Amino acid sequence: MDLRGKPVRKMVEAVSSKEVSAYQLIEKTLENCALVNEALNIFSVIAGVDALEQARAIDKRLEVGENLPLAGIPVAVKDDIFYGVLPTGLGSAAFKEFIPPYTATAVERLMDAGAIVIGKTNIGDMGLGSSTVSSPNGPTVNPWDAGYAAGSAGAAAVITGLCMLALESDTGGALRQGASHCGVAGLRPGMGRVSRYGLNADSSSFAQVGVTALSGDDILCALEVISGPDGRDASLAAEDKWAAGGRVAPDLQSESLTIGYPAAAFDLPEPEIREVYEKARERYQAGGYRLTEIDLGLLPEALRAYYVICLAETSSNHARFDGIRFGRAAEAGDLEELYAKSRRLTLGPEARRRSIFGTYILGKGHYDRYYRQALKIWNLVRREFNRVLKECDLLMLPVVKAAPVRLDEEANFLENWGADLFTAPVSMAGLPAISLPAGQVGKMPVGLQLVGRPFSEKLLTAVCDRLAPENKLFPHRGPS
Amino acid sequence: MEDIKAGLEKAVRVMKIEVEAGEQEKLSAELDQFLQWLKPMLDLETEGADQVLVAHDRISVVRKDEARQADQAELQEAAPDFAGGFYQVPPIIE
């Protein structure tokens, strides 16, 4: 059974009508996971017995007439999102056997709706970076070309048919870049839309829980379940804002939508990627969308400000891994040594770099110069995006400026951070954004990013399904 | 560069993390690169822009600031260990 053959809604119908049982579906899925994982290193843990028990429970719930909107749907959960049954490695050798004492709200809601967690997907060192190259488990290999990193293991799981939905975190753009590199759709919801309870965030201001799937409608199936107020997350939008924000289905007449694009952002150094984006723009225009050129000149400074804030928050968040409050305690002669050795045990090279730089930035004499300036630029970035989205309904941006990381080359850390140029500023703006397949360079997929106004996730998923099938390049389906 | 080396050393000390000597050299060079990279950000005109303090402006952070009576018994019951009028915590170092 190939999970890519049916949209989520059709699969739910098949499971609910007993055409196939959840148990059969998951049994086959787990077989596939074991086979593919050997080649691509997608999962840090495959659920096995637990997934089969979940499936049995779902079949029983259906037997007694429960209506489950995600009945039997296999979901992969990124390894920085807690599921209190499976080990959650957090991208650290020190947490290899850590089983969280609770489950993230988003995971809990998916499971209540009938979804089945089939495993935890690989992440970089402490979940940092927009690829998995710094993972203590080794990188996840791109399913399209084994010479490259997948970007995100959840996206690799979706495109290889190992799951139908992947629940992932996105801070500076890992989810969106992974979707781009693997040729699937990936939604980062706007801030305040989805509970982050149970997400081990490196940057508290920018980390968000999102969904990757084969289509916008599949993503919507999950989003309808996971979004909404949660008493355990005070950073969710107030309920009155929800009502005003437009949960209502938008008018999707293509001629009524104006998409803004900053021409300078598409002037990329890699001619083949530039060409993919040019062709996509032409297709959208031919399809009746109104494209209007806009100015969005702040992106390079936004990226720099993003890193200042992100590193400062990372250093603060990593402080708790001292071997006493959190993390594994190292062998040590005294308290100071215990702290130092335990932090080293927990944080890998990338996490150490970011935490130490963050501590430097927050130090006396640097705080005003770097951190305060970055907080002001954050404000300018928000204003800039809000201004643009008053002029148009959606904003189009590249997701990536280059192919994913090559597995046989070690890139400079600033080159790796620079990969977030088009995604991190959107995280700063707190707006919803979706990455959808736009074309290919050689074998490798390239995604395009659409950014919407607050609470426009439904619009984004619908436009994704209107635009993506036009590519005819991927096993990507439009609305059923 | 000497300033940066000293700054990095201080950050390592403040953060209380073990870093090997060779790694510290490498990190100093990288910090230098990072600070050079940040320069255009420092030159950006931000006059009139307030610092952002919350991740987004749709949060309801305002509630009435009023004192409420806590239920002591309920709090004690929720604590892992409570004895003799104190919350018991495990010793930090055995």
Brief descriptors of the model:
heterodimer; A: 480 residues; alpha/beta; 2 domains; B: mainly alpha; two-stranded antiparallel sheet; 3 helices; 46% helix; 4% strand; flat
Provide an overview of this structure.
The complex is a heterodimer of chains A (480) and B (94). Chain A has 480 residues and is α/β, with parallel strands linked by helices. Chain A has helices spanning 8-16, 22-40, 49-63, 105-112, 153-159, 174-182, 216-226, 239-245, 271-286, 299-318, 335-346, 349-361, 367-391, 413-418, 424-429, 457-467; strands spanning 43-46, 74-78, 116-121, 165-170, 185-188, 208-213, 258-261, 290-293, 394-398, 433-441, 444-451. In chain A, strands 1-3-2-4-6-5-10-11-9-7-8 form an eleven-stranded mixed beta sheet, with helices on both faces. Chain B is flat and about 60 Å long. In chain B, helix 1 crosses helix 2. Chain B is mainly α. Chain B contains three helices and two strands. Chain B has a domain at 2-42. The interface between A and B is large, with 62 and 37 residues.
Record the SSE blueprint.
The complex is a heterodimer of chains A (480) and B (94).
Chain A: H1 8-16, H2 22-40, E1 43-46, H3 49-63, E2 74-78, H4 105-112, E3 116-121, H5 153-159, E4 165-170, H6 174-182, E5 185-188, E6 208-213, H7 216-226, H8 239-245, E7 258-261, H9 271-286, E8 290-293, H10 299-318, H11 335-346, H12 349-361, H13 367-391, E9 394-398, H14 413-418, H15 424-429, E10 433-441, E11 444-451, H16 457-467
Parallel strand pairs in A: 2-3, 2-4, 7-8, 7-9
Antiparallel strand pairs in A: 1-3, 4-6, 5-6, 5-10, 9-11, 10-11
Helix pairs in contact in A: 2-3, 5-6, 7-16, 10-12, 10-13
Chain B: H1 2-15, H2 21-42, H3 72-78, E1 82-83, E2 86-87
Antiparallel strand pairs in B: 1-2
Helix pairs in contact in B: 1-2
